[in-house]
Amino acid sequence: MVSPQSNNRVIVYGYPASPFYQKITFLLDHYGVEWTLVDVPPVMPRPQLSQLLGITYRRIPVVFVDGQAYIDTTAASLALETAFGPTSKRPLLQHFPALQMQLAVNWAESSIFRLGAGHLYNAPLNEAFVKDRKSFMPGSSFDSESMKARVPFVRSQLTANLEAIESHLKEGGKKFLFGDEVQYLDLSLFTPLNWVQTQLRTGKDLLPAPKKGGGDDWSKFPFPRTLEWLAAVRAYLAGKKVKPVKLKPEEAALVILQQSSENAEKEGQLHVKKDDPLVKAGWISGEKGQKVSVTPVDTGRVPQEGKLVGLDSKSVTIKIEAQGGKALLATFPRLNFDIRAKDGAKL
Ligand SMILES: N[C@@H](CCC(=O)N[C@@H](CS)C(=O)NCC(=O)O)C(=O)O
């Protein structure tokens, strides 16, 4: 039996090229938290999650905090802020927390992220990856020529979005978006823009690649304050890098299931409100223990089944059956997830 070590409080399943995985590593660097990494492949299947832990949800990353799964980086970020914001004395949701969360989900991680993906046309995408992602985002094209043909549209939209950041930075006159301290929206917006600037390197004059070692003169580019701010976030994170400890999937699953067996108390504290719109509409009964599916409404629409344990206006928590008759709790954001009863849904 592998006994949990201090660095196993946070276990992240991901692969380095994933921007959403990178976002979580930025948060962990910011809090200065030791963490554990379980490598998963960039394409399905991922038995590390599905077979060992019963997690069929297909997007990456999946983050465990103290044996509980947090699915989608919104849920994971809230869990990390609750666990480490106060203790690290570096809270990320100090200013306008609700607005920061909404802007992260509905701006940085939707339209800006998609514009980032519009810069993938030079990336070495192999056949297996393209086939996998077509099922992930039906209707999307990863053909380099059609992606290139769309670049003027992508750059036109990017201009409008960068303009918003530029004018906000001009009004604020500070190093970061909300002042002299990094906040959640800094990291959330930085993630897709930094992906284009430093990894895809197809941002041209809008998001030019920085020189090694810094010292760039951004004044000749259309959005100099934005480039300055991106460089400041990059430099901030570079000084805080935490190297994860790697664990094999089998060992990680043992640790997680051991930790989750100590989570019974948490389960008892969660509730489903009888006046929840889904209960009132008869889509779910409102009873804890009902079998439900939770499915993203945007990309990677693979349902996750489990027994309903808690539902409030922010999140839904289900109990998932894992290997060897064990179980674990998984929390999803409510926003952009569809929750349905598996038995007797009124549809
Ligand atoms: N809203 C999700 C988005 C996650 C996402 O789209 N992740 C990408 C990787 S960057 C993904 O899972 N792609 C398909 C895959 O890895 O199977 C989150 O915040 O976690």
Automatic annotation (TrEMBL):
Organism: Pseudozyma hubeiensis (strain SY62) (Yeast)
Protein name: GST N-terminal domain-containing protein
Highest rank taxon of the organism: Eukaryota
Coiled coil (UniProt feature): none
GST N-terminal domain sequence ranges: 13-85
InterPro entries referenced in this protein's UniProt entry, alphabetically: Glutathione-S-Trfase_C_sf, Glutathione_S-Trfase_N, Thioredoxin-like_sf
